[in-house]
Structure formats: structure tokens, C-alpha cells
Amino acid sequence: MRALGVDPGTRSFDLVVVEDGRVVWERSIDTVRVAEKPDSLVEAVEAAGPVDIIAGPSGYGVPLTFNQEIVDPYRFALEVLLLTRREDLTFGVKLGELGIRVYEAITKVVVELWRSRLPVCYIPSCILLPTIPPYRKVNKLDMGTADKMASAVLGVFDQSERYGINYEDVNFILVELGFGYNAAISVDKGVIVDGLGGTLVQTGFLTIGPIDAEIAVMGREWVRSDVFHGGVAEICGRPSMDDVLDGYERGEEPYLTAVEAMLDGVEKSVKSLAPPDAVREILLSGRYSRSPRLRRLVEERLSKIAPVRSLGTLPGAEASKEAAQGYAIVGDGVAGGPFRNLIEHMRITEARGTVLDWVFHPRLSSAKEWLTKAYVESVRNPKLLKAQ
Questions:
Q1: pTM over 0.90
Q2: 243: Cβ–Cβ under 8 A, 6 or more apart, which residues?
């Protein structure tokens, strides 16, 4: 069994091939390059050699969907996986928004993979999983995108292997420190039970995080690319985390306020997800978890809650991101490989519905209808939460 995972990051697309529980091939491609030349990713997939399954870039997630079930790949990618309309994509690309270039790249890649008739599947995000109680999903969408879900899958395997425990004994909070977003995912008894995605954790490097409803109405009109603004980079006017940390260490504003806002957001998110009977450990992942200076600041905050360590990687991994390895694990398990029991335990194939099913504000009723319609019309046999 050879399974390939594709993680679409803000800075790079990472590809990983897993065979017999080991990483046997890795590749990273700049996201802008993928957007400009999507067949470069297909070429990379072909360079990986024969694979039995590919877990493709899944954005905000979808119930397990295979390439042959898709009838309209462009609409499936843009509207279902990315919750974006064609005009939003065109406008964001025209503005040169880096985040929108990711969306452009994913859309083009999904279409190319469909045309190539490769053995691709698309996977769920956290909110679609039956292991998160419905009451925690009310009026939420981003409880952790598909890549965060994939990292949590790697975390379950990692903790089980490290401590020699069964999946049902695994317990941790995953903290993702990404280039664009931060996120926190709660795992208990080896399944995902709660989560705060990148737009629900205060002040990421690029994103504003959750918005006060009063602020939202003051903004009057918002566009898709607005989710990539308002974070540390915007506060400081610096696109480099190193520059921001330099200013922070000098005790200068606005660097102090920006970094403290980020740290406070991460700490509060972890505390809000921590069960009353303690957490075994907190696992760090993501691009900025590898920044020694930022990591030290985060550890100072989080070590008061539980022991902190880096999320482990699969044997053989050298450079690939954790999410890419998680994608490959999901693909392997779905196809009946060595990780089958893990995927069954986490109930990933039981995901149902759309990411807007638990939103109840009247302003969003038309958006719910739009997303459901796009899902139903772009795939065969859609896995709806209930008859709609």
C-alpha cells in the first residue's frame, strides 16, 4: 500500500508518500508556482511513482469523496472545498492576495487531478466528524480545516506509539502555529472532540481571528480575502515573523501588543478546550512552531496547563509538514492500509453534511442553501447530514 498526501499550505504545497507506516518520498512546491502552473503538482505526483490512493487538498473539508464521484470539479473545489464564489476568487487574485492564491492553486489542482483520473479522495474537516457533539458546533464553521484534522490524526498515532498506549487512551490538545493561521484541536479517547480553527483563534500571523459582531457590522461589506488580514503582520506592518520578534525583544510597539495578542489568543484557546480532568500533553505543529524564539514564548504560556512538545513525525520523514503526513495516513487508512484501524477509530469515514449545517443566523440562510446546492450538484451520492 502506497498512499500519497497533499497538504496545501499558504506558503507551500507539501507531498508525502507513506508505505508500510513510513515516509518514503517527500516533495515541497511553492504555492504561487502551483497557482501559476497547476500541472506542476500533477507532475510531482507522477514523480512519486505508483500510488494506490491520494488524499487531495481538501480546504474546509467534505465527507469522504472520491474522484470518480465528482461531476463538476471546478465547482466542487471552489464552492464546496473553499466556500468561495468565482467573483471572489477573481477579485482576490486581482488584488494579489497571497491567501487567495492558495485558493486559486487548490481549485486548479483539483481540476487537474480530476482530469488525470488519478485515485484521489477528499477528506473532512473537524466540524463534519460525528465525534464532536452537535452542541459544540452551533454557529461555528471553522473548528479546524482538513489539514488541521489531518495533523490531529498524526497526533493520535504519534502519542499512541510514543507511550505504547491504545488509541482510546490518547489525550492531547494540538496547537498549530501556521504562517497564516493558528488553531487548537482537542483530542480525547483518541478522537477529535472539539476545535478552534484559524478564524476562531485570536490574532494569527495573517488573520484577525474571531470578530466581535459589532465590529463586523461596522465593516458593512466584507470580501473573501478579508480573512487574510488583521493579524500580527498587519498590526506591525511587517511580513516577516523574525522582524516582528526582533521588535518584540526590543520592547517596541506595536510589536509588543501584536505578539502578546497572539500568545494570549493561543493560551485562551487551549484553556477553553482543556477538559477539567487535565490534558496529557500539548502538541505543537506548523511552520512557526519551528521558530525557536516564538516556540519559547508559547511554551512559557502553555507549560502551565500541560507538558508541551513538538508533534512527532512518521519514520522516514525529513522535511514534510505534519499535515501532509496526516493526509497520507488518512488516505492509507481509507484504502485499507496499515492505518485502517486508526481511521476507523477516529470515525473519519462517517463524516456527513456541509460545514454550514450548524449555522442558524437568518443572514446566512441563503449561504447554507448555496453550499448545499453546490455540494449536491457537484458530486454523485452526496453524504448529507439529514434530508434537506
A1: yes
A2: 236
- Indicate the pLDDT class of residue 89, thresholds 50, 70 and 90: confident
Q: Record the cell numbers describing residue 352, joined without a space.
A: 456527513
Residue, of 342 and 103, whose pLDDT is higher: 342
11-32 mean pLDDT? 94
Burial of residue 163, with CB atoms counted within 10 A of its CB: 0-12 exposed, 13-18 middle, 19 or more buried: exposed
Distance of CA 209 to the CA centre of its chain: 15
The three-state secondary structure class of 82 is: coil
Where does residue 48 rank: exposed (0-12), middle (13-18), buried (19+ CB within 10 A)?
middle
Q: Are 195 and 143 in contact (CB under 8 A)?
A: yes
Query: Is the CB of residue 317 less than 8 Å from the CB of residue 160?
Result: no
For residue 21, give the amino acid letter.
G
Q: Which helix (H) or strand (E) holds 366?
A: helix 365-378
Average pLDDT over residues 76-104: 87
Domains of the chain, CATH where assigned: 2-378 (3.30.420.40)
Q: How far apart (Å, rounded) are the C-alpha atoms in residues 278 and 172?
A: 9
For cell 462517517, the residue is: 350
For residue 92, what pLDDT is reported? 83
Amino acid code (one letter) for 193: V
What's the rounded Cα separation, in Å, for the pair 178 and 289?
8
pLDDT(388) > 60: no
Residues 6+ away with beta carbon under 8 Å from 182: 175, 176, 198, 201, 203, 204, 205, 209, 262, 265, 266, 269, 286
Please check whether residue 111 is in contact with residue 77, taking contact to mean a CB–CB distance below 8 angstroms: yes
Bridge partners of residue 207, in order along the sequence: 230
Nearest to 5 by CA among 60, 58, 62, 55: 55
Dihedral class, residue 25 (left if φ above 0, else alpha if ψ from -120 to 50, else beta): beta
Nearest-angstrom CA–CA distance, 176 and 364: 28
Whether the predicted pLDDT of 175 surpasses 80: yes
Instruction: Give the separation between CA 205 and CA 241, rounded to whole angstroms.
Output: 8
Buried b (16+ CB within 10 A) or exposed e, 279-311: bbbbbbbbbbbebebbbebbbebbeebbebeeb
Q: What is the mean pLDDT of residues 339-360?
A: 98
